Amino acid sequence: LGDFHSSIFPIYNEFKDKISTHILVHDHALGEKMKHKQVLESLEKFNKKHSLKINTQEHIVDEDSLASITNLVEKLKTISNDWSEVYINSTDGLSNIGIILAHKTLDYGVNIISYDMHENSYNITTKDSMHNFKINSHLKIKDHLLLKGLEIESMEDKEFAHKNEAHIRALFDNYRHEFNNMKKDIYHRTIKQHNYPRAYQIIQNLGLD
Question: Cα(2)–Cα(11) distance, rounded to whole angstroms?
């Protein structure tokens, strides 16, 4: 889990019918633990909606400890007898963790996935190859919001949502923190555009200001 932890969701959705065990890896810091809780709750709701029987596990690491990160490799050994069936999603994760995991596992035949949110594609890297694939299973708006931990109160203008899907995704994918701060200011009637310039610009683009 990195800064944009939602970047794991497109890959999760793409492979949802092939995943048997899913390990969420995060740092031991308090903020990371809270982030993990939110992501886990969202995944559980998503799995229930789609009747997915995926065993999701938590693994905590100290990003500054080589021994701690290496312990994750030992855990992987206990889960799968075939390393070629192990896929590590390094998307937006802490770079040192990704580097160490790649160094420790590529020789075994592990696959490293990296998702590009701008191209909506992903690379699968092995010891001897790297291939690019387009996302085939696109997240529907309802699922996208569900994985964000948001519940839909009502469905009104579907045409508006589909027409502005790129803006809506950007708002929640990239600038959700700004958007949340803006919501608080709207509630208290104290708009401070300079505190959330990118989120406010998207709201203007949507004609909702």
Answer: 14
